[in-house]
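ESCALATION

Customer reports they have been waiting on this structure for their group meeting. Please prioritize. Original submission:
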Amino acid sequence: MRCYVLSATVALMPLFAEAQESGTLSGTVTDYTGIPLLGVEVVADSGALLTYTDARGAFVFAVAQGSHTLHVRRLGFAPLEVPVAVAAGAHAEVALKLKSIATTLPPVVVNPSNIHYTGRLAGYYQRLEKGTGGVFITRNQIDRENPSTLGQLLQHVPGITAQRGRHGITSV
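Update from on-call: job pushed to the front of the queue and completed.
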């Protein structure tokens, strides 16, 4: 029994040695005004380790001892590459500031196409679009005039006469 325990301990020795040769790497990412940046991609060792910053701009890696290169990027900011050294069993901390960059987008050309109306008002919108014959009352006109009755709205239509009758009733 003692032989097995001894052999298991000897077999696990390289794992304990490897664990002692690792460290942690943490940091914060802010813009140049000091505001923490959420969702910044932080990559160590050319993609071997990947994480994103939290709402405080913080990130943490468990890394092996030695030299590492951090690649930091986020949309709207210039990418950053930073070398970092981590000692065995130690904790390295970095504070990174990203420079915002303005991106000029190409112009967008919008080409109108024929609209195919559907529904119960399809005919109304087709005639309104063509502008052939008739008088159309639009939502903007109704909102602008704010009539309390249909007669008040129709009195501006050419060829229609609105008359006020008894008891305030408007006839067309």
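Sent to customer with the following note: The longest strand covers residues 22-31.
Escalation resolved.
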